[in-house]
Write a sequence for this structure.
């Protein structure tokens, strides 16, 4: 029943490790997003994909690589994790991504880098 | 200075009070969103509007495009309304890219 799901919910790891976060939506939407919420609760867009094609790529370090195997999935792989990567990462989706649409958010993945 | 500024940053009120949260932005926009983040962390979209006013239950959102300002009102507030309310704007061109305000933490005491 969950519209936008993320795994894992919590991720605790050491600096320098590589980790992935998965996102799936069952809404039939064409566009998916990754957002980062920092320790001050400030949200910022990282990436968006429309039907497996990268549309938005904000100034995010190259260590972050999104992958969309199909339009229902958008995964986020992070290489060489740093302390500053600790945050909550939210996935979201919208019907077309053109604009003026409601976005549907996943529950978030809390990443803690030690 | 952020493109999107919210006020107040924190708001504490008694149950039943009328609540107003403000959002000002400095860029041209095609739409403005109000989101609610529950204490558990989940984010829910409340409204998306590009002009005028929208109402859903006890929540009302208004926008004045000329003044670059939006307000979110809660009537007859209840402790379950306690959450962080986030304003976000979409630019005028291209793909849907949200720029967020810093959020307003609302606490309603019984």
């Amino acid at each position: 029943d969950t519209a936008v799901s993320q795994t894992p919910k919590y991720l605790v790891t050491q600096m320098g490790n590589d980790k992935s976060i998965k996102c799936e939506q069952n809404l039939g939407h064409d566009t998916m997003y990754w957002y980062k919420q920092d320790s001050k609760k400030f949200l910022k867009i990282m990436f968006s994909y429309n039907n497996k094609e990268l549309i938005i790529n904000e100034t995010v370090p190259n260590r972050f690589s999104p992958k969309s195997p199909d339009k229902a999935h958008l995964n986020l792989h992070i290489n060489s994790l740093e302390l500053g990567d600790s945050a909550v990462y939210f996935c979201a989706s919208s019907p077309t991504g053109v604009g003026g649409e409601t976005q549907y958010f996943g529950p978030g993945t809390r990443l803690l880098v030690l | 200075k952020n493109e999107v500024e919210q006020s107040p940053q924190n708001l504490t009120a008694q149950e039943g009070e009328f609540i107003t949260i403000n959002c000002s932005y400095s860029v041209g926009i095609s739409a403005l969103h109000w989101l609610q983040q529950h204490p558990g962390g989940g984010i829910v979209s409340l409204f998306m509007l590009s002009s005028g006013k929208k109402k859903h239950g006890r929540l009302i959102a208004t926008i004045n495009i000329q003044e670059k300002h939006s307000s979110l009102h809660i009537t007859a507030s209840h402790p379950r309304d306690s959450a962080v309310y986030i304003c976000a704007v979409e630019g005028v061109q291209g793909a849907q890219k949200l720029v967020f305000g810093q959020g307003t933490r609302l606490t309603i005491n019984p």
Remarks:
- The interface with chain A takes residues 30-31, 33, 35, 37, 41-45, 48, 50, 84, 86, 88, 90, 94-100, 102-103 of chain B (CB under 8 Å).
- The CA atoms of residues 22 and 71 of chain B lie 5 Å apart.
- The mean pLDDT of chain B is 93.
- Chain B has no helices and eleven strands.
